[in-house]
Every structure is written in C-alpha cells, then in structure tokens.
Amino acid sequence: MKIIFLDIDGVLNSNDYFDKQKENSKAANICFDMIDLEAVKRLQHIVDTTGAKIVLSSTWRFNYFDKLKAFFRENGFTFEIIDRTGRGCSDCVRGNEIRKWLKDNVKQGGPEVEKVNYCILDDDSDMLLWQEDYFVHTDNKHGLTDDDAVLAIRILNDKPATYF
After folding, report:
1. Digit-coded pLDDT (tens) for 30-45
2. Which CATH number fits domain 2-156: 3.40.630, 3.30.420, 1.25.40, 3.40.50?
3. 108 and 121 Cβ atoms separated by less than 8 Å
C-alpha cells in the first residue's frame, strides 16, 4: 500500500499561483479557483508513477472532502482520495493526526503486517521527528514543484515504513 497524505494550501496552490489569479477577478468558483491545476498534474504524475492512494490531511477535509473529489474527477484527474485524517485537538500537530490514521488503518504485528509506503506533502512543518524521511516540505511560494514530485516518488518507491 502506498499513501500520500495531502495538504492543499501551499501544495496545490501557492503565492505564485494567487499572483497569476489576481488578473482574473471574475472567478466562477472562488473556492476551486484556488487550486492550481498544474500542481494537480504533478500530483497525478506522482500517483501514476507509484500507484499511491490519497488521504486528505488538509483542513479542506472538513468542509470540502466530497466536493474536492468531484472537482478532481470533473477536471480529468484519476487519482483516488480514499479517506481523510481525523480531527485532532486544537493544539495537536498534523503529524499526530497522520500517525493516528496509520495506526488505525494499517495492520500491525505478526506475519500479517501490511507494509505501507507513505509520503506527506505539506507546506507546514508540524510533523513528528521520525516522519522526516517521509515528508516533502513544499514551499507555499511555489507549491508542489517538479523537484518535490521527484522526491515524493523516491519516498513512495523506497523501503516501506513499519514504524508509526
């Protein structure tokens, strides 16, 4: 199993993208006009190359989960968003929410261990120290770049993680 924990803001949009969008002040759908389809193409490339599934870890997971899935399908993207992380406490770090999802959703122990490769795509840095090797820290100025995609593919195709 290969999983991408996906943030939206700073990954599938960026300050560069918003600067370009200022020219088009008559946005038809202000929410989904915030998503840079070029960044989504990079995400699709990661999925096509690795076979990964997506778990939404962005705050968008609370209000836009089903709408995001529909938006991506309507725009021709075929990756699968299979779930979303749960809500942590107000002062919890995202890394703990990801850890809990992994612990709750991946079999552990004994000969039936289901191996999981995962990658975290996020512009924030509130991950756990031991998640560092699985973390692609995007820059909110540029969002998901080609270099970030190469790193994500390398992480997902590398040795499975067994420590959560």
Report:
1. 577 889 999 999 999 9
2. 3.40.50
3. no
